[in-house]
Structure formats: structure tokens, C-alpha cells
Amino acid sequence: MLNQSTTGSTSRTPGYGAGSLLLFVASAVILTALGFEIFGGEKPCPLCLQERYAYYTGIPLAFIALVMLGAEKPRAAGLLFFAISLIFLANVGLAGYHVGIEMKYWPGPQACSSGGLSTLGGSGGGGLLGAMAKERVVACDAVNWRFLGLSFAAWNAVMSLFLFTTALKAAFAATSKYS
Question: At what angle do helices 53-70 and 152-174 cross, to 10 degrees?
Fold first, then answer.
């Protein structure tokens, strides 16, 4: 019978559980957003698209950090988890800014406010440029969908805050024996 301490089980590595949760939840959030866009027809506004950058960078970095934990490089993994936590903290701020725009606390960028709603691509043109010219920019200050009273941007703020704390927990757990 094998001793568990000699089998190299990564599930017992400090930070692996929180890192796995981070990877799973971040993936579920971005897949949900893409699902609403592709299958639900909900077009994202320019700020919504910017808020996705945290997921597009955080998910691969979380995977790499988990691989580093498995390769017994907890310091490098801890640094990556810490960087991911900062990425999601910045996303909390961006999502909070977006919620403030939706609630009319402050004006949003001119390019995505309902007062400044415009078409892309200018006038004229055929083919792809012509199609782009007819595409309307989605307003950042309009809430098209709510769940439990919260908009997409508000849910993103909540989930980004959760992912920030989870990544921070993984960072501290991964480097706990080095402190």
C-alpha cells in the first residue's frame, strides 16, 4: 500500500484547493457571459468587454499556477496567484465604475452612453465595413437584464471580489511554509 505523502498528491498541496476553485469559478463566469452573448443574444457593451480581460488573463495564469504547485514550485505559484488577485481587484473597480454608470451616479465614456449612442464605421462602405457601419454600439448605462436585482456588471463585481479573495487565499496558502 502506498503512503499518501510519497505519491505526490497535489490535492494536499497548500493553495491547490483555493487555486482550483479560482480556476473553476472564473471559467464558469466567463463561459456564462459568453453563453448569454452567443445563445441569449445579449450583446455586451464596451465596458463589459473590458471587464472580460481579467478572466482572459486570470484563467490561464491560474492554470499555470496550479501546474507550478504540482511541480513543487510554491513560491512562483504564490506570486502568480497574488498577481491574479490584483487583476481581479482591478476588475472589481472597473465593474463598480460600470454599475455607477448604470445607476446614473456618473457619466460613462462617450462612446458607450445612451446619450452618445452611435454607429460604428462611419458612413458608406460595402461588405464588412458596410455591415460594421450599421452595427450599433450597446449602451453601457442601459441595463438589459437583471438577476436577483443585480445587473451583469453588478454580478461581475461580486464574482470578481470573490475571485480576488480566493486568489489571495491561494497565494498565502501556497507560500505559507516560506513565511
Answer: 20
pLDDT digits (tens, 9 = 90+) for 4-58: 444 455 456 778 899 999 999 999 999 999 998 889 888 888 888 899 999 999 9
User: Around Cβ 48, how many Cβ atoms within 10 Å?
Assistant: 20
Based on the number of CB atoms within 10 Å of its own CB, is 67 exposed (0-12), middle (13-18) or buried (19 or more)?
middle
Per the structure block, which three cell numbers stand in for 75? 513560491
Q: What is the mean pLDDT of the chain?
A: 81
pTM of the model: 0.79
**Which domains does the chain show, CATH number per domain?**
13-113+143-178 (1.20.1550)
Contact criterion met (CB below 8 Å) for 178 and 75: yes
